[in-house]
Specification:
With about 110 residues, the protein is α/β, with parallel strands linked by helices. The chain contains 4 helices and 5 strands; from the N terminus they run βαβαββαβα. The chain has one domain: Rossmann fold (3-Layer(aba) Sandwich), CATH 3.40.50.
Length: about 110
């Protein structure tokens, strides 16, 4: 099995249980992880656990992983696609059809959404 490497930083949006777990695994693999959460306390806790560093404006991730509740996933994906025009954006939500439908309706450029 071949191993794919991410050349640039990975931004994780949503540093709850899933986002922090992904951040920890990527950090342990030597990947630079940028953590972002709407709750500063949750974000700081993820950083304290070692899941990455706090995302700062102007940083340009290669990959964005959206780890937020399904009811806001589509809007966060659209926001990240616009904010990071060179990044690939993906999510960990369990419900894909509704999210994709909302994204298509929003007019977001989905060419970098996986």
């Amino acid at each position: 099995m071949s191993t794919a490497r991410v050349a640039g930083p990975v931004k994780i949006v949503g540093s709850g249980l899933i986002g922090t777990s992904i951040g920890l695994a990527l950090t342990q693999a030597g990947v630079q992880v940028l953590v972002s959460d709407s709750s500063p306390a949750v974000q700081d806790l993820a950083v304290d656990f070692g899941a990455g560093e706090v995302f700062k404006d102007g940083q340009n991730p290669e990959l964005v992983i959206v780890c937020v509740p399904p009811d806001v996933t589509a809007s966060v994906i659209a926001q990240q696609l616009e904010l990071h025009p060179k990044a690939t954006v993906t999510d960990v939500a369990s419900v894909k059809a509704t999210i994709l439908s909302k994204l298509e309706s929003s007019g977001a450029d989905l060419s970098r959404y996986v």
